[in-house]
Specification:
Elements (H helix, E strand, L loop, with lengths): L2 E7 L3 H12 L4 E5 L6 H6 L1 H19 L15 H25 L3 E4 L2 E5 L2 E4 L2 E10 L3 E3 L12 E2 L1 H4 L8 E5 L3 H12 L3 E5 L11 H13 L3 E3 L2 E8 L4 E7 L5 E6 L1 E4 L3 E3 L6 H4 L22 E3 L10 H15 L13 E3 L4 E6 L2 H7 L3 E7 L4 H5 L6 E7 L5 E8 L2 H13 L4 H5 L9 H10 L8
Parallel strand pairs: 1-2, 1-6, 2-3, 6-17, 8-15, 9-10, 9-15, 10-11
Antiparallel strand pairs: 4-5, 5-6, 7-16, 12-13, 13-14, 18-19, 19-22, 20-21, 21-22
Helix pairs in contact: 1-9, 3-4, 3-6
The protein binds 1,4-dihydronicotinamide adenine dinucleotide (NAI).
1,4-dihydronicotinamide adenine dinucleotide binds next to helix 6, strand 12 and strand 18.
C-alpha cells in the first residue's frame, strides 16, 4: 500500500493541473486515471481534438472563400478525411504525452485504473488500495442524452462520436444550439454537410447576451447552417445508416420529422461520478447530481475534495484548472481563491464568440444602472485587411462608477481578446482605464479599446 499526501481521481484539466501544483508545493501526489492516456475529456475527446477539426475546416473555408480575393489562385483543396483525422490524432498525442512528461518531471505517480473511495483517506484502484491524507475528485462529466434517444456513436452520436465519424455525412441534424452543437455543426457545415440545428429555446447559446445571440445566429445562418427554433426533440429513430428526428414545435404543438445521415446530440453534460462509491461514503450531492462542496472545495466528507465539472458552476476546462490550483494551495496551507465573476467563455466558431461577466439581461434583472460601449470590427483596419470585419466588441460598465461589469465579443480572435478585459476586471478597472491604455496599431485589440472609448466620449473610428 503506497501512501500519499494527495490522491487526485481524474487527469483532465482540473486533475492534472491540480496535481502539478500540489507537487510544486511539496506534496507527495498521485493521480488515478483509467483511460489509456492522460488529459481527460478535454485533451482526448473534447476541447483539443475539436479545435484541430475547427482549424482544418476553417482553412478550407478560407481557401474556398477568400484566397482568390487576395490574388491566391488555383484549385481549392479537397477534403482527405482520413488525413484530417490523423492530424487530429497527432495533436491529441502530442498533448497527452506532454502531460505524461510533466507528471514525470514533477514526480507525480500515475495510478492506472478506475478509482473508488471506500473511506476517507483511502483510494482503491483495481486490487490495490492507497492511502492519502487528502483525496480530490476531478472525475469530470459525460454527455447527457434525452429520453427516447439512444446513442450508438455511429448514426446517433455525442461529441465523442462526432469527432470520429467514418466519413463526412451529407446531412447532419444537431440537437441543441449550445457550444458543442454550434462548434461541431460549424466543422461539418464547412466540410460540406447540410447541417440543421434543432433547438428547444427561441435563442441559441443559452445564458449569453441577447444581442450576441441574435447576431451570432445571423452569422451562422449566412454560413449555411439551418435552424429550427422552439422545437422540442421527442425521439430519434435510428435506422441502419440514417436516423429520423421527431420534434414538436412548442408554439403550436405540431409534430415534425427530419432525416439525417448523422444526428449529433448536444443537449448538455452531466457530472461523471459513476463507480466512485460516493453514496456509501455519504458525500452530499445537489439535486442536479453535482457534488456539493464548501468554499474550500471540501465535500461533506472531511478530507475529500471535489473540483471541475463534477461540482457546481460552468463546465469549463479553465474553471476546473483554476479550482485545481486553488485547492492545491488550500492543501499546502496557503490561500486558494477562484473569482467566479471573471470566468471567460469562448465558442471557437468563426468568428469566435467570447464573453465574461454580466450580460445586459443579467444587469436588467438586478436592476443595475449600466452603460454600453460598442465597436464594430468593420471599423478596425486589421480586421478589414483579413476579411474579419464581422462582429463587434461590447463592454458593459457601471453607469456611475464606470467600472467594467462584463464584455461580449463576436469577431476575430475573440477568445484571446477577451482576456484583456478579464485582467482589467480582476483589477477593478474602469472602462476609462482601458480606453487610456495605448494599444498597438494595427491590431484587433484596438476594437476593445474603441469599445471602452465608446463607454465615455465615443470611439474614434465609427
Ligand atoms: P449546452 O447546455 O451548452 O446546450 C444544450 C442546448 O440543448 C440548450 O440550448 C438546450 O436548450 C438544448 N436542448 C435541450 N433539450 C433539448 C431538446 N429536447 N430538444 C431541442 N433542444 C434541446 O450543452 P452542450 O453544447 O452539450 O455543452 C455541454 C457543456 O460543455 C457546456 O457546459 C459547455 O460549456 C461545455 N463545452 C464548452 C466548450 C467551450 O468552452 N468552447 C466546448 C464544448 C463544450
Amino acid at each position: 500500500m503506497a501512501s500519499y499526501d494527495v490522491i487526485i481521481i481524474g487527469s483532465g484539466p482540473g486533475g492534472y493541473v491540480c496535481a502539478i501544483r500540489c507537487a510544486q508545493l511539496g506534496l507527495k501526489t498521485a493521480v488515478v486515471e483509467g483511460r489509456e492516456t492522460l488529459g481527460g475529456t478535454c485533451l482526448n475527446v473534447g476541447c483539443i481534438p475539436s479545435k484541430a477539426l475547427l482549424h482544418a475546416s476553417h482553412m478550407l473555408h478560407e481557401a474556398e472563400h477568400n484566397f482568390a480575393k487576395m490574388g491566391l489562385k488555383g484549385k481549392s483543396p479537397s477534403v482527405d478525411w482520413k488525413q484530417m483525422l490523423a492530424y487530429k490524432h497527432d495533436v491529441i498525442g502530442q498533448n497527452t504525452k506532454g502531460i505524461e512528461f510533466l507528471f514525470k518531471k514533477n514526480k507525480i505517480d500515475w495510478l492506472k485504473g478506475w478509482g473508488s473511495i471506500p473511506e476517507a483517506g483511502r483510494v482503491k484502484v483495481g486490487d490495490d488500495t492507497h492511502e492519502a491524507k487528502s483525496i480530490i475528485i476531478a472525475s469530470g462529466s459525460e454527455s447527457s442524452s434525452l429520453p427516447g434517444v439512444e446513442i450508438d456513436e455511429k448514426v446517433v452520436v455525442t461529441s465523442t462520436g462526432a469527432l470520429e465519424l467514418p466519413k463526412v455525412p451529407k446531412t447532419m441534424v444537431v440537437i441543441g444550439a449550445g457550444v458543442i452543437g454550434l462548434e461541431m455543426g460549424s466543422v461539418y457545415a464547412r466540410l460540406g454537410s447540410e447541417v440543421t440545428v434543432v433547438e428547444y429555446l427561441d435563442a441559441i447559446t443559452p445564458g449569453m447576451d441577447g444581442e450576441v445571440q441574435k447576431n451570432f445566429q445571423k452569422i451562422l445562418k449566412k454560413q449555411g447552417i439551418k435552424f429550427v427554433m422552439g422545437a422540442a426533440v421527442q425521439s430519434v429513430d435510428a435506422l441502419k445508416t440514417k436516423a429520423k428526428v421527431n420534434y414538436k414545435l412548442r408554439k403550436d404543438d405540431t409534430e415534425h420529422q427530419l432525416d439525417a445521415d448523422v444526428v449529433l446530440v448536444a443537449t448538455g453534460r452531466k457530472p461523471y461520478v459513476d463507480g466512485l462509491g460516493l453514496d456509501s461514503l455519504g458525500v452530499e450531492m445537489t439535486k442536479r447530481g453535482q457534488i456539493k462542496t464548501d468554499d474550500h472545495w471540501q465535500t461533506s466528507v472531511k478530507g475529500v475534495y471535489a473540483i471541475g465539472d463534477a461540482i457546481e458552476g460552468p463546465m469549463l476546462a479553465h474553471k476546473a484548472e483554476d479550482e485545481g490550483m486553488a485547492v492545491a494551495c488550500v492543501l499546502a496551507g496557503q490561500h486558494g481563491h477562484v473569482n467566479y465573476n471573471v470566468i471567460p467563455g469562448v465558442i471557437y466558431t468563426h468568428p469566435e464568440v467570447a464573453n465574461v461577466g454580466e450580460t445586459e439581461e443579467s444587469l436588467k434583472d438586478q436592476g443595475r444602472a449600466y452603460k454600453v460601449g460598442k465597436f464594430s470590427f468593420m471599423g478596425n483596419g486589421r480586421a478589414k485587411a483579413n476579411f474579419a470585419g464581422e462582429g463587434f466588441v461590447k463592454i458593459l460598465a457601471d453607469k456611475e462608477t464606470d467600472r467594467i461589469l462584463g464584455a461580449h465579443i463576436i469577431g476575430p480572435m475573440a477568445g484571446d481578446l477577451i482576456h484583456e478585459i478579464c485582467v482589467a476586471m480582476e483589477f477593478g478597472a474602469s472602462a476609462e482605464d482601458l480606453a487610456l491604455t495605448c494599444h498597438a496599431h494595427p491590431t484587433y485589440s484596438e476594437a476593445v479599446r474603441e469599445a471602452a472609448l465608446a463607454c465615455g466620449d465615443g470611439p474614434i473610428h465609427s
